[in-house]
Description:
By secondary structure, this protein is α+β, with helices and mostly antiparallel strands. It contains ten helices and eleven strands. The protein has helices at 68-79, 102-117, 124-134, 138-142, 179-184, 197-205, 209-214, 221-227, 231-240, 262-272, and strands at 3-21, 27-47, 52-56, 85-91, 147-152, 156-159, 167-173, 217-218, 246-248, 255-259, 277-283. The strands form two sheets. Strands 1, 2, 3, 4, 5, 6 and 8 form a seven-stranded mixed β-sheet that branches.
Amino acid sequence: xxxxxxxxxxxxxxxxxxxxxxxxxxxxxxxxxxxxxxxxxxxxxxxxxxxxxxxxxxxxxxxxxxxxxxxxxxxxxxxxxxxxxxxxxxxxxxxxxxxxxxxxxxxxxxxxxxxxxxxxxxxxxxxxxxxxxxxxxxxxxxxxxxxxxxxxxxxxxxxxxxxxxxxxxxxxxxxxxxxxxxxxxxxxxxxxxxxxxxxxxxxxxxxxxxxxxxxxxxxxxxxxxxxxxxxxxxxxxxxxxxxxxxxxxxxxxxxxxxxxxxxxxxxxxxxxxxxxxxxxxxxxx
Length: 285
Ligand code: C5P
């Protein structure tokens, strides 16, 4: 096999509780991941030069070692003492540094793609160990599932057997926000410890969108609004359209709402098309 193309999907966090700060500087989390159908496309082509080369149609995506796909390829190439290199072309659709897990998803896709291209026969344990080394959100994307719970750094993942498919309106302001910066200033006393992810999961299982919308949570919201106060106005405007609950995703500025149908999401989308943000209609994937 000389080349492989794979989709690399984004995620939303429907629940993100910051439990506490750890001695290693990270935070323990309890988070509900939802995979959505907003996808990048990655193409891997074997090369004999031995180089790792990244090509991307998005100017904000680095082509060097800061790129998580590069980092993944470099780790594997060194550990397995490989002679062959790889050319990776990333067709970027997932907004960058937006809390949608694009970079982490690309890294997980690279692990899966390079395992085949370079014939590494990685075990499940090796996949997970590489994923955790590369980033907290990477393990979720290794699992072929729409829904999962993440604990510890978000990297201890348990698949959930939920058949629910949701429609969302997703608004991504062009304000890149970096996880490190968001987590650094989080005030653990302001987080809502009482909310329960199990209530949300039960509501989703019953397709009770109203209740599910009520139990969306993101403990990073106060910090996100502190970094970008204009997002408060965006939230108020989205609330005017009365979706079934809204929340920010992960440690980024992306705001999403659950809608009752695709049509409702598209109606909200047309009211939000502006230069200062990208607007998507997305579904559980
Ligand atoms: O794991 P990842 O490299 O994606 O994390 C980026 C940054 O986000 C970390 O350096 C850390 O500052 C912060 N973070 C955290 N707690 C987590 C995940 C990320 O504090 N559970």
